[in-house]
Every structure is written in C-alpha cells, then in structure tokens.
Amino acid sequence: MAFPLAHSYNVLRRLLLANPKAGPAVHFLVLEGEKTQVRHDTDRELPFRQESNFAYLTGCEVPGAALTVKYEHLGEQDIDTSRVEANLYLPEIDPDEVMWCGLPPTPASLASTLSLTSITSGWTPVTLSPPSHPSLKTIVHTLPWTKPPKGSVARINGPTYTTDHLLKALHEARRNKTEQEVVWMKKANEITSGAHKTLMEAIGRGEVKDEGEAEAVFTSYCRKKGAKHQAYTPIMASGSSAGTLHYISNEAEFPQTKPGALLLVDAGGEYRNYAGDVTRCIPIGNGGRFTKECREIYELVLSMQEAAFKIIKPGTDWEDVQRLMHDIAARGLLKLGIFVPGSVKGSEDEVVKAIIATGLTTAFYPHGVHDVGGLPEGKSKDPLLRYLRLRVPLEPGFVVTVEPGIYFNEFLFQPFKNSEFVNHGLLQKYNYVGGVRIEDNLLITETGFENFTTAPKTVAEVEAITAQA
What are the start-end ranges of the E strands in 379-466? Predict the structure, then answer.
C-alpha cells in the first residue's frame, strides 16, 4: 500500500468512527510539522526531529512543512480512497536559511519516494484554509497545539473547527503498524540489538569503566549503523542506581561492590522516527559473571517475561499480562525467601494472594509490563495497573514492549518497611542488585507474535560475551 497516503486512510477511518453522528461532511485535517529550534538566546540550532504525527502522515523531514488532508464523506461506512486528497506544503526557500543550512529537498525529489496527492513549495495559514463546498458542511480538524487556519473574514456557513478527534484518531491509527512501519521498526531493533551486544563485548574486554563510557559505546554504534537519534535518553544505571526507573545521569563510575554488580542498559536507536526500545542487564566485576543474587533476580525477571510470552496473542487483555507479572514476581520472591508467608497459614496461592492484596509487589515491580497507548481516560485506581497505558485487547499489527522488572529501591519500599511478608534481613543482601529489567519489542501477528529483538538475553548468552576475558 502506498506510503504515506495509506496512513491518511487509516486516520480518516478512525476519525469517522469517532464521529458517527457527523453525517455527510467535508473533513479537513490540518497539521504543521516541527520547525528548526535554537538554544535559548543563541543561534545554535538544536538537532531537528520531526513531530511524530506529522512524520506518520507525510514521511517528510523538512522543517517548517505543513499538510492538509481533505475528504468528502457522503455517508458511506468505509472511506472512498479516490476522494482523499493529501497535500504537502514545503516552506518557501529562505536565502539566509540556505546560507547556513543548505538547500532543502525539492518537491520533485520528495515526490519520487512519497506517495501524496501533491507536494508544493510555499504556504501561509491562508493557504491551509479549507475550500468552500456548495452543499456539505466543513469540519476542520487540528491537533490541540496547532493554530487553526482561520481566514481574516468569517464566511457565512463557514467551517467548524475542532481539536476533539484528530489526536485520538492518530493514536488509534498508529497502534496498528503498516508494512512500511514494520520494516523500519525491524531496522531500529536490528541496530539497537547490535548496540547492546557491542556494549557487552566492550565491557567484557574491560574497555568500559563507567556509565558515560557505556553510553558512548552504545550511541556510537547506533550512529554508525544509521540511527541518527536515540529513541529516548539512554539509561546506563549501574549498581543501586538501577533501582531508579528512568535514571539518566549516566555519570557514575561502576561500583566496586564485591564480588560484582550489574549495569542496567535501557536504550534504543531511532530509525526513520521509529524506535528500538530494549533493556538488558550486564554483569560488571566478578569476572564478567552474574553474582548469586544478581543471577537469581535476573532469572526471575526472565521467567516473568517468558510467562508473558506464553499468553501474548490477538485478543489478550494487557491487564491480564500485568496481573500475571505480579503473580510470578510474588512467587519468585517467595521462593528466594525475600517474601515470607507471614501470618497466612494456607497454600502458596493463598499466600501470594494475600501478598499482592497489600500492594507489596508494587514496591518491587512498580511499572507496567509496558505497552502502546490505549487508556481511555486517566490512570487506573488499581495499584497493579496504575502505570499501565494499554487498556484494550491486543490486535494484529500492534507493536508492544514487554519489560518486566524487579527493583530494590529503599524509597519505594518505605510504606512496607514493617510488612510481615518480608524477610527484612535477607532483603538487605539483595539491595546492591539495584534493579533488573528485561525488555523486548514484539509485533502482534494473526497467530501470536514476532519478536524483533535479538540482543543476547539468557545468562548463558550474556556471560559467553562478558566472561571471555
């Protein structure tokens, strides 16, 4: 299917589903792309990254561009693609901009790779105004942060402007990936997996001594392989810092804990605006091998992910996956002796139920198994689901991250410092682990899933790289 025009079809379908009572109308979508930004009070350009929704609908990386999508809806249930007009507008050539930054792509060069109705140069807000229609009402859809293209003089029977539907339609359309998106996401994962393995190798050779050097090795590999940007600020959390979920300081020397510790690496390259989002944990010290405590927690988290994999398929409720993660975590920590039955005299199932009911597992596994967007309104009041954004059944075409974890964060544990279900003395012996998270990226298929992530993951695979020295 033609890229990116097929993405406009997807958004329009979602838009019409969200407006069942709108009736026949001209739907006119207006989006403006990201502009070149400069650092405060300087002329120093910041790295350009296209706004994601604009990139989805246009594939255009030119700063300052705009898009209109017009569709005359006559009441049909599905859209008639022959009546969809997607017009991309590039900014006028600015001689000063050319002097500093060079010539942008021409409409003709972009048209050779992008399937759109038209690509032209030069636009003003008036250019983006919807044309009049003799018999149909016009509804102009913009994103909440986009100023609608209103003319200076209001027309009789003029268009209706709304920000109520376009962003939600984009979110829903973007959940189901198209063939082109899958190609780029696989490439992002290929680069990201390679970067994780390369960092493991460098640590195994003794070439990396601190978090900053680890970040440099990772990002350098990504850049060499075609990922200009990181998908997010890399997390290079060593030792107890791994207990902070989004630790991004990345400045500390590796801890000298005897016999060793872990480096939690949550990082991913971005390719054509599509992310790799992968987490691995690398042993540091101890001859490149996991310590007893690190290995026990790592294998528990790996068992959580493997349990999730067994139930992930179309129709699976993501809440069920999240609840399963808490169940596996509770049973694993109970087996290790960190959790204890307390005053509960029943079966293991009864003990686990009692532990989870207190919220104790949220101190060790506070986040969601992770996801794409999908929570209709706000956060859940259920503590197990508080940070779970995906609240719809899985569908073919979804790409989700599966990233269970176990963390030792004294601040998060404070509400449970007197819990009868914790062996507090034994817990102290595991605090140096900091945290373990394991994360892969999965495409939901008709029969199950395809795992895009190939970075070494089992204890044996990781140690085969890090313990060679």
Answer: 399-402, 405-407, 435-437, 440-444, 449-451
